[in-house]
Design a protein that fits this description.
Elements (H helix, E strand, L loop, with lengths): L1 H9 L2 H5 L9 H26 L4 H22 L3 H22 L4 H6 L1 H20 L1
Helix pairs in contact: 1-3, 4-5, 5-7
Length: 135
């Protein structure tokens, strides 16, 4: 349902009419990339959880990060507040960088699994920034 709502947004007049970067991928890419990234995030989370044997502080930070992840969607899509969404995604990156560093203490693989997500977030930040500047 969440992916459906995002696909509906990316095909809506509101999104189609805004100025986007020439690097913006086709709309269908988002519905392919995000599920893969969420699977990787879940694997990483559970790898660290199995090492911590509880929800240790780095996992708590990761969960806070996921709240910001969810909030971004509402800010950008539902409330059409691209600037606040940009601030949100920058906070997401900061929290995720912390998690990548801290997860490494528990599992190098768990840390490395988050790197594609971090790279995607950096790209998404560029796309969000481009929209803020050019609209």
């Amino acid at each position: 349902m969440f992916i459906n709502n995002m696909n509906n947004y990316y095909n809506s007049d509101n999104y189609l009419k805004i100025n986007k970067s020439s690097l913006t991928p086709p709309n269908y890419v988002f519905s392919i990339v995000w599920p893969i990234l969420y699977i990787l995030m879940g694997i990483s989370f559970f790898m660290v959880y199995n090492r911590c044997k509880s929800v240790c502080f780095p996992l708590q930070v990761f969960l806070v990060h996921m709240v910001f992840n969810l909030i971004w969607t509402y800010l950008f899509i539902k409330y059409k507040n691209k600037l606040v969404a940009l601030v949100d995604i920058i906070i997401m990156i900061a929290l995720l960088v912390y998690c990548v560093i801290e997860f490494r203490k528990y599992s190098v693989l768990a840390s490395n699994i988050l790197v594609p997500y971090l790279l995607w977030l950096c790209f998404a930040t560029y796309l969000n920034l481009y929209i803020v500047i050019n609209n």
